[in-house]
Write a structure and sequence with these properties.
four-stranded parallel sheet; ribonucleoprotein; 7 strands; three-stranded parallel sheet; structural constituent of ribosome
């Protein structure tokens, strides 16, 4: 509507500006073809580069009463399942009987033919027994020892590597010791990791140290890395789990878990009750 009004206004302005006939009915009032009609200055002419003076034109409103409407949609909403007058027919667009006329079909059903997921060939496989280890090089451990973050005289466990930032926070299945920067190890160190490469083990043993491969399950890693979580929940620390048969040849021993630092309240109460019963 607005574009229609603007087009009519521009057409009126052009016609009134180029028309040579007088716009007023009075014979004495005549205008130049480039003179602005209804202008206060009879000597003013039309300048296309200057701003147009709309005060000289006849007042023309862009809105009118017959264009006013309520701000509501003209199309009524579809009322499904309400008979023929709903706009979707008697069956509400579901047709007659059949599987899809009621509850519907299962995902991936293609009318009885072989579905696409069965027509496509399979490539490769995913090993459900695969393990993911976080790698850490000997050079990084040597740099942390020189920086004073790791004490080389103590046993370096996976918790020590995590607390010092040698590995990431997420330890899925353990830590693998790599031989990167093995020439920087010039003093004996003792480590406990999940896996170790041949080069890394040879470098540590050549410097007079040792590397032991230990096994932890998921719960064991949680007890090793965050023992305070069990104390906060009032739970006992789990026992170290034995490795499964397929990993017995790949580990040297079972992992060691820390002892609880604070007594658990309900265990203290039970021990006190037992002492009272013995005394009585």
């Amino acid at each position: 509507m607005l574009s229609r009004r603007l087009a009519a206004l521009s057409t009126f302005a052009i016609r009134s500006s180029i028309c040579s006939k007088p716009i007023l009915t009075s014979p004495s009032a005549r205008f130049h073809p480039l003179q602005l009609p209804h202008s206060a200055n009879p000597c003013a002419t039309f300048n296309p580069n200057a701003a147009m003076d709309f005060l000289g034109f006849r007042a023309y409103s862009l809105l009118s009463l017959n264009d006013l409407r309520d701000n509501i949609p003209r199309k009524k909403p579809t009322r499904k399942g309400r008979g023929i007058g709903s706009g979707k027919g008697k069956t509400a667009g579901r047709g007659h009987k059949g599987q899809r006329a009621r509850k519907g079909s299962k995902l991936g059903f293609e009318g009885g033919q072989t579905p696409l997921r069965r027509r496509m060939p399979k490539r490769g496989f995913k090993n459900p027994f695969s393990l993911t280890f976080q790698p850490v090089g000997l050079g990084k451990i040597a740099w942390l020892i020189n920086a004073g973050k790791i004490d080389s005289s103590e046993l370096i466990t996976m918790k020590t590597l995590k607390d010092t930032g040698a590995i990431g926070k997420q330890i899925k299945d353990g830590v693998r010791l790599m031989g990167r920067g093995a020439e920087q190890i010039q003093w004996p160190i003792h480590l406990e990791v999940s896996r170790v490469t041949v080069r890394a083990k040879a470098a540590v043993e050549a410097a007079g140290g040792s590397v032991r491969r230990v096994y932890y399950n998921k719960l064991g890693f949680q007890a090793l890395l965050k023992p305070e979580w069990f104390e906060k929940k009032g739970r006992l620390l789990p026992k170290a789990a034995r490795p499964p048969p397929k990993q017995k040849d790949k580990v040297d021993s079972i992992g060691r878990l820390p002892a609880p630092t604070k007594p658990i309240p309900f265990l203290v109460e039970e021990s006190q009750d037992l002492q009272v019963q013995r005394l009585t």
